[in-house]
Amino acid sequence: MKLSIFLATSGAVLAAATPILRGRRLFVETKVVVDFVTVTVTEGVTPTMFGNRRPSPKPAVVSSSPVAPAAPTTPPVVVVPEPTPEPKVEPTPEPTTAAPVVVPSPVAKAPEAPAAAPVVEAPKIQEAAAQAPSGDDYQSTALYHHNVHRANHSVPAVTWSQTYADYAATVAKSCDFKHDLSPGGGGYGQNIAMYAGTNAADDNASHAASGGIGDGWYNGELHIFPSQDYGKPNPDMKDFEAWGHFSQMVWKGTQQIGCATQFCPKGTNLSKAMDGWYTVCNYFPAGNMGGGYGENVLPPLGQPTVLGH
């Protein structure tokens, strides 16, 4: 039995300095107008609302005074007159005062809380299920192992870019396990992976790539990403080196990828003791942009695990 050692490491993710996508916000302004009617009530006057004012009629004051008897015009006859009845004194009526009409001031109604802005659900993207690659077609393999996992996060499938694949091939041929964005002048994201073993020479590029992409970058890092930070513009970054490949893979704003996998015999910078394979994938637009995680790294749907190997 051959002794085999499997090494899998993944490099950190480089990203451009500016956010790729900016979120849109919806503001709802609600204006509440409250009309106040001020009513002043004065005794004896019927209050009126503001409008065409008409003078209120003053209440008529009705009063009576006792009437004196008329003086006699003939010489007095000694007659015992009947006692003159005392005039009846009508009581002076109280001035008629209109009862004040009290119009309560309208109660200022507390403005109703504005209705919550309607929740606008983003249209669900109906993506065709990622098709498993047939045979050892490298391009199909790389696309499949990206898109099958992107679908689990409700984001669109990426397409192949030969330009970025050529940049990746330039880096992979160096067999030097480190990030290099110099081909093409940068401006894209990059994931790297390698494995080495005593029987690595018997493997092929497609198989090596599927292991790095599916098992290393996705299945190996999905559960390290802080799940409580889905939806936040910036998650806790202390373990970024451990989950940054995963977040680049499923970054919603990324539209194109280009990958290459190079066989590196033992003695190279990749591995001094064993043969190995070096996989490089480039991403455009780049992911892992500060402030954009909430919109671009969405929680998983819980679909069945898809293994790379």
UniProtKB/TrEMBL annotation:
Which SMART domains does the entry link to?
Answer: SCP
Q: Where is the SCP domain?
A: 137-291
- One Pfam family assigned to this protein is CAP
Signal peptide positions are 1-15
Q: What CDD domains does UniProt report for this protein, alphabetically?
A: CAP_euk (cd05380)
Q: Which SUPFAM superfamilies match?
A: PR-1-like
Q: What residue spans carry the region label Disordered?
A: 50-97
- What InterPro entries would the database entry show? Allrgn_V5/Tpx1_CS, CAP_dom, CAP_sf, CRISP-related
Q: Where is the composition biased (Low complexity)?
A: 59-81
The UniProt entry's GO CC annotations, sorted and at most eight, read: extracellular region
UniProt entry keywords in alphabetical sequence: Signal
Highest taxon listed in the record's lineage: Eukaryota
Name of the protein this chain belongs to: CAP domain-containing protein
